Amino acid sequence: MLRTPRPASNDRRKRYFKIENPLIVAYRFDGDEIATRVYPDAAATPQFYGCLIARLVREVTEVMDVTEDVIWEAIEEERNNPTIVYFKPN
């Protein structure tokens, strides 16, 4: 399961946790720039990452309270016409 641990309270010190074996990390910095990093796992296959991306879509639909179709349509639009500025760290 890929759920993010939820803090017991609003105490900021409890919101941070160590990511031991990341697979995909994405974050926003400097306004609109997005950094992404994929950490290949020795046992991972393209199908594994496809399943991981599908799981991320489901997580987003839950958070945004929209259907999967809304997110998949946005993915297809971005895939066909990239608009997001992103930065791939070294």
What does this protein look like?
By secondary structure, the protein is of the alpha+beta class. It is built from two helices and three strands. It has helices spanning 46-64, 68-80, and strands at 24-29, 33-38, 86-87. It has a three-stranded mixed β-sheet with strand order 1-2-3, with no helix packed on it. A hairpin with a 3-residue loop joins strand 1 and strand 2. Helix 1 (46-64) crosses helix 2. The longest helix has 19 residues, at 46-64. The chain is globular. It starts with 23 loop residues before the first strand and ends with a strand.
Question: What's this, in brief?
Answer:
The protein has 90 residues and is α+β, with helices and mostly antiparallel strands. It has helices at residues 46-64, 68-80; strands at residues 24-29, 33-38, 86-87.
What gyration radius follows from the Cα positions, in whole Å?
15 Å
Helix count, per DSSP? 2
Give the strand content. 15-25%
**Mass-distribution shape:** globular
Distance between the termini: 28 Å
- Give the low-pLDDT segments: none
Percent range of helical residues: 25-40%
Largest sheet: 3 strands, mixed
Report the order of strands and helices: EEHHE
Number of strands: 3
Mean pLDDT: 80
Query: Would you tell me the structural class of the helices and strands?
Result: alpha+beta
Biggest sheet: strand arrangement: 1-2-3
